[in-house]
C-alpha cells in the first residue's frame, strides 16, 4: 500500500478532497480542468461532474491523457507511488470533488 493510499484509501475524506482540489487548482481551477477535458474530447464527462445529474466515470488512462503523463508522474513522485496508481485514485475522486466544487451546476468564478 502506497503513501497516497493512506491519504485516499478506502475513505475519500477531507484529505483526498483537498488533494484533488489542489490538483484541480494546479490545472487552472474547475474551468481549466473542464477545458482540458473538452480539448481531449471528454467535455461531456467533465460537464457531468459540474452539472446536477449523475457523474460520468473517467478511466485512469483518460486522466493521464487529459492531464498529461508528465503532470501525473510528477505528482506521483511526490507521494512515492507509481503514476498509474495515482491516475486510478484521481479517476475515483475527481468526479465527486468537481461535483462538490460546483454546487448547483455552476463553476466558481463563472
Describe the structure.
This protein has a single domain (3-101), classed as Arc Repressor Mutant, subunit A (Orthogonal Bundle), CATH 1.10.10. Helix content is 69%, strand content 0%. It starts with a helix and ends in a 9-residue tail after the last helix. By secondary structure, it is mainly α. Residues 1-12 have low confidence and may be disordered.
Keywords:
mainly alpha, 110 residues, globular
Indicate the overall shape: globular
Low-confidence stretches: 1-12
Number of domains: 1
Order of helices and strands: HHHHHHH
Total DSSP helices: 7
Q: How much helical structure, as a percent, in the residues?
A: 55-70%
Termini separation: 39 Å
Note the quaternary state here: single chain
Strand % is: under 5%
Assigned CATH class = Mainly Alpha
Radius of gyration, Cα only, in angstroms?
13 Å
User: Tally of extended strands?
Assistant: 0
Structure classification: mainly alpha
CATH architectural arrangement: Orthogonal Bundle
What is the fold-level CATH name, i.e. the topology? Arc Repressor Mutant, subunit A
User: What is the averaged pLDDT score?
Assistant: 82
- Largest beta-sheet details: none
- Fourth-tier CATH superfamily name: YidB-like
Amino acid at each position: 500500500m502506497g503513501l497516497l493510499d493512506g491519504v485516499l484509501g478506502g475513505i475519500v475524506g477531507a484529505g483526498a478532497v483537498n488533494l484533488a482540489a489542489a490538483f484541480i487548482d494546479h490545472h487552472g481551477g474547475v474551468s481549466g480542468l473542464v477545458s482540458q477535458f473538452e480539448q481531449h474530447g471528454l467535455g461531456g464527462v467533465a460537464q457531468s461532474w459540474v452539472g446536477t445529474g449523475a457523474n460520468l466515470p473517467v478511466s485512469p488512462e483518460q486522466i493521464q491523457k487529459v492531464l498529461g503523463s508528465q503532470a501525473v508522474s510528477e505528482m506521483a513522485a511526490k507521494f512515492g507511488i507509481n503514476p498509474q496508481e495515482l491516475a486510478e485514485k484521481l479517476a475515483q475522486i475527481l468526479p465527486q470533488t468537481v461535483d462538490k466544487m460546483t454546487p448547483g451546476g455552476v463553476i466558481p468564478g463563472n
